[in-house]
Write a structure and sequence with these properties.
327 residues, alpha/beta, UDP-N-acetylmuramoyl-L-alanine:D-glutamate ligase, four-stranded mixed β-sheet, 11 helices, 13 strands
Length: 327
């Protein structure tokens, strides 16, 4: 645990995974299939985590590939706008494409359409991850999507080796997206392997259940992973809050109720709030609650990266909202 906390407290993170463009129907409440206007901004789970970290005062660098086209340049420019270090971005020409997500700010019958044809972020290689100077960072973060295909699966495990050699902790957001994987069996095996090599694992009850072979087995999977000394596991349960397993403890936390506009982006914001909370020397329970507050802020506002709170907005939210609820 000390190894993990010491790394996070450096408040500087190297992040593996995808960037993408989000297009969300405007105004709030408009359905994507009838909207006449869409807003655009940065998207993609790892890019969102990077933006969220920077807005909360941390430093982050994204390691990924982007397409050599207008959309790839748009995403690169938005990363820079949010303060993300882009020195490890690789630009690929040809038919590789950056991700595009189309969605809306509604809860009932929410629609999210993701285009992942010839996904450029899967083209990260060993050479790309070897360019990173890991000792410049306090921790490595990855979202599970990078493991869905080669060469990024192998290069991410290579990055894990590099992080261990540099003596920095590995933080793993399971982030299981079935559409990216060749089969559920491959996904369960690979994601479980990534979890075994990580120091902090964050996922929801469906993701842990998937890794365990059944949702009813998910909580025991989380407990088993947390049994390794020094490893922390956060088991998220939506409206029921979260259980954090760490050093033999089970820390139960609730959520901050809000009127949600959409369901997506919450996990990315949770990660940013959690890590910056630890970096600012809040206790683990308080850091988890700060992550939960960040998740609530994002689902209550349009977009993902633009909805991520600054430190000032987070403190205002915590001061003005009742909660958290008890799990």
């Amino acid at each position: 645990m000390d190894f993990l906390i010491e790394g996070i407290r450096k408040n500087s993170f190297v992040v593996l995974g995808r960037a993408g463009m989000d297009m969300f129907a405007d105004p709030v409440g408009a359905r994507a299939d009838t909207a006449e206007t869409f807003r655009s901004d940065l998207g993609g789970s790892s890019a969102n985590i990077c933006a969220g970290l920077c807005k909360l005062g941390a430093q982050s660098a994204l390691v990924t590939s982007v397409s050599d086209d207008a959309v790839g340049r748009f995403c690169t420019n938005r990363l820079k706008y949010y303060g993300v270090d882009t020195q490890y971005l690789k630009i690929l020409s040809g038919e590789y494409r950056i991700s595009l997500a189309v969605y809306e700010s509604v809860i009932e019958d929410f629609q999210l359409v993701i285009y992942r044809n010839n996904a450029v972020d899967f083209q990260v290689t060993n050479e790309d991850v070897d360019r990173v100077k890991y000792s410049n960072f306090g921790a490595l973060i990855t979202a599970g999507t990078v493991f869905a295909a080669e060469p990024s699966r192998g290069s991410t495990f290579r990055a894990f080796e590099n992080a261990r050699a540099a003596k920095i902790p590995i933080i793993f957001d399971i982030d299981y997206r079935p559409y990216s994987w060749p089969s559920p069996e491959v996904a369960a095996e690979v994601l479980s392997c990534a979890g075994e090599q990580s120091d902090l694992i964050v996922g929801n009850e469906e993701e842990f259940g998937f890794m365990a072979g059944g949702i009813e087995k998910g909580i025991n999977k989380a407990r088993d992973l947390a049994a390794r000394p020094g490893r922390t596991v956060i088991y998220k349960m939506g409206e029921k809050g979260a259980i954090t397993f760490s050093d033999g403890q089970e820390i139960h936390t609730g959520i901050y109720p809000v009127k949600a506009l959409k369901p997506n982006g919450a996990g990315d914001s949770f990660m940013a709030g959690l890590l910056t909370g630890i970096a600012k020397e809040h206790g683990l329970r308080e850091a988890v609650l700060r992550g939960s507050a960040c998740a609530s802020i994002v689902v209550a506002n349009p977009g993902c990266a633009p909805a991520m709170p600054t430190t000032e907005k987070l403190e205002e939210f915590l001061a003005s909202h009742a909660g958290p609820t008890h799990s």
